[in-house]
# Entry
Amino acid sequence: MDSPLNVTVTAELPGRPEAPVESALYFAVSEALTNAAKHAGASRVDVRLRYQDGVLKAQVTDDGTGGADPSRGTGLRGLERRLATFDGVLAVRSPLGGPTTLTMELPCELSSPRTSSS
# Structure
């Protein structure tokens, strides 16, 4: 994917979620990256994925101008709706001047990682 952002991804996942959950999180993170590039004036974004206590968590932090507010636009509301379909939640921390951190949580089970018999 072509992006003006310098993106670092850290993933600590012991398996994979079911395809619908994986897809929902993929598109939610993609939307967060689009918002960072389009509205925040960010140049750098860190994405952290982890799984803990039955919850898949994604944290997206950008170095943009901050001030993101779900009540002022459809982008963050759309993220909330996408995650709510799977009983997930979105938390936004975005003080003026930045940084903005979006924390997305989706309850789910992960499949066991495949192992080779060789």
Notes: The chain has a mean pLDDT of 91. The chain has one domain: 6-107. The beta strands are 6-12, 44-52, 55-62, 89-93, 100-107. The two ends are 34 Å apart (CA to CA).
